[in-house]
Amino acid sequence: MAVQLQRPPAAVVFLCVLTCGLSIPDPGQREALMQLEASMQTGGQVVLTDAERQLDALLFKMKQEETARTDFPPAMHFFRARDLIRTSPIFGLLQKMPKGGALHVHDFSMVDAEWLVKNATYRPHCYMCCTDSRSVRFIFSSQQPKPLPRCSSWVLLENLRDKMINATDLDNSILRNLTLFTDQDPEAVYPSQDEVWDRFEDKFLALWGLVTYALVFRDYYYQGLTQFYTDNVMYLELRALLPEVYELDGSTHNRVWALKTYQDITRQFMATHSGFFGTRIIVTIHRGVNASVMTEAVEEAMKLKKDFPDFMAGFDMVGREDRGRPLWYFRDALSLPVESGLPLPFFFHAGETDLEGTEVDQNLLDALLLNTSRIGHGFALLHHPVAKDLSRKRGVAVEVCPISNQVLKLVKDLRNHPAAVLMSENHPVVISSDDPGMFGTSGLSYDFYEAFVGLGGIKSHIGSLKQLAMNSIRYSSLTSEQQNKAMAEWQRRWNKFVSENVF
Ligand SMILES: *[C@@H]1O[C@H](CO)[C@@H](O)[C@H](O)[C@H]1NC(C)=O
Ligand SMILES: *[C@@H]1O[C@H](CO)[C@@H](O)[C@H](O)[C@H]1NC(C)=O
Ligand SMILES: *[C@@H]1O[C@H](CO)[C@@H](O)[C@H](O)[C@H]1NC(C)=O
Ligand SMILES: *[C@@H]1O[C@H](CO)[C@@H](O)[C@H](O)[C@H]1NC(C)=O
Ligand SMILES: *[C@@H]1O[C@H](CO)[C@@H](O)[C@H](O)[C@H]1NC(C)=O
Ligand SMILES: [Zn+2]
After folding, report:
1. Which residue has the higher pLDDT, 363 or 14?
2. Which ligand has the minimum distance to the alpha carbon of residue 241?
3. 168 CB under 6 A from ligand 2?
4. pLDDT tens-digit readout, 116-159
5. Could you tell which of 116, 121, 130 is best to mutate to test the pocket of ligand 3, judged by most ligand atoms within 8 Å of the CB?
6. What pLDDT band is residue 323 in, cutting at 50, 70 and 90?
7. Which CATH architecture is the domain 79-109+220-499 placed in?
8. Which residues keep their CB under 5 angstroms from ion ligand 6?
9. Domain locations in the chain?
10. What is the DSSP letter of 450?
11. Quick one: three-class SS letters along 243-291?
């Protein structure tokens, strides 16, 4: 049978020009190709000042030393790596670095769990009961609360601690109930995705009664702002459930109250913390609900957006994608804003899965069809070339949360995280910390460390860091005028950071 000869594809011709007829590839051309690749990565085109170049040389040296270690932190489970990271000189620098905004953080995991134990549970009127699955529940009440099903009788923590000579063990056991972090072998404690998600969701139930008590609700958020601000984060987009918040006498407040409270506290915080640019709220609902509940939630969110146009950024769903309903199931509810002309920007979690080819795996493309403003996680994006292309062309940034993906068992070694590829081609990405309290971190620096050292490898540099920080402003929901202001403030802080760290 005759084989029809075809013209070789362009790439083959290109390779031939490079190699045909030469025994050794031309070093000049090799250099040119390497430069080309380097220029394509996140920050590859950023023009550096002399001072930035000096700082980069320092960072490069630190990174080489870090990479040469046998216990390279990004290759390890974060729970084992945390102490190593804390003593890393790169981490020290990243803490001081102005990181811009954190665009993917959840309200009830924004503060480290230690604060909940040492502050919230030490307040008067705090009751605890132990569930029959060895978890705990809390409630603040002016009188003995009514018993919960499948929970021991309520004990007043104040009384319990008074009877003890030393409450350290009790406090540590409470702490273990409020965070996934463990000193034990994390692979043994959390052997599968199902297991780690079950524990993750149970820990939210455990802290629920603490953080939805009005006084704690306020202070928790204020403490969250403090921790991000201290970590040199100047702006937050907070995914918030806006739950029913209660008082000691059992009376409750509605969602508008919760949103208004966040707004008041943000203003109060900004008045006393110079350079903090504020918070915007992305209202969330659990994806486990049915279509009619979702319709109500979207309608309510549209109204909140109308009443709090500047403070509220938009809408999203939370909960494990693999177990919840896919976005497409909610398409009617999610089309209401466009149909009724009351705009409601979306910030969907999508592609936080490794279930390739399932209904849920379709979320990435559907999020884009529904005009999402950003993609939460987008872990599966490399499996969807069309979605990836759309995300790039439309500037729909991917919110990359490396530690979250590792702890929730999508990836073991962060050098293999799909966002390493996205960073090698300057895909629009921002780095965030998702649920720092649950993962044993605070603020944003730990995730920046994993992104810079693990995802970026030796080749990412000070330009990459600069670009990631600038991306967090550029892909925020702020108006372009606000973005310019935020960018100017960030630049001022950045210059100060660079000059203070080169010698
Ligand atoms: C908890 O924190 C608040 C706000 O910072 C503070 O006023 C209060 O005294 C603290 N309470 C305890 C028990 O540590
Ligand atoms: C309380 O107990 C912990 C652990 O059991 C121990 O490390 C600590 O030293 C004790 N503190 C006091 C004041 O006895
Ligand atoms: C949660 O706290 C209870 C009560 O202190 C304790 O018995 C239980 O072991 C703790 N759970 C975990 C996972 O540590
Ligand atoms: C949807 O869920 C709500 C709350 O769980 C329930 O009251 C309602 O009956 C459900 N609607 C349908 C159509 O299943
Ligand atoms: C998304 O945007 C397109 C183009 O602007 C528009 O036609 C479509 O109705 C929008 N869909 C939704 C659900 O927002
Ligand atoms: Zn999230």
Report:
1. 363
2. 6
3. yes
4. 999 999 999 999 999 999 999 999 999 999 999 999 999 999 99
5. 130
6. confident
7. Alpha-Beta Barrel (3.20)
8. 434
9. 79-109+220-499, 114-200
10. I
11. CCEECCCCCEECHHHHHHHHHHHHHHHHHHCCCCCEEEEEEEEECCCCH
